[in-house]
Amino acid sequence: MNIILFGPPGAGKGTQSDNLVKDFNLHKVSTGDLLRNEIKINTPLGIKIKSIIDKGQLVSDDIIESLVDKILSNKKIFNRLIFDGVPRNLNQVKILNDLLVKHKQKISCVLSLTVDRDTIIKRVLGRQVCSKCSLIFNEFFNKPNNDTHLCDKKYLTKRSDDNTSTIVSRFDTYSKEALPILDFYKKQGILNEIQGMMQIDVIYKEIKAIIQPLATWLYKK
Question: What pTM was computed for the model?
Answer without folding.
Answer: 0.76
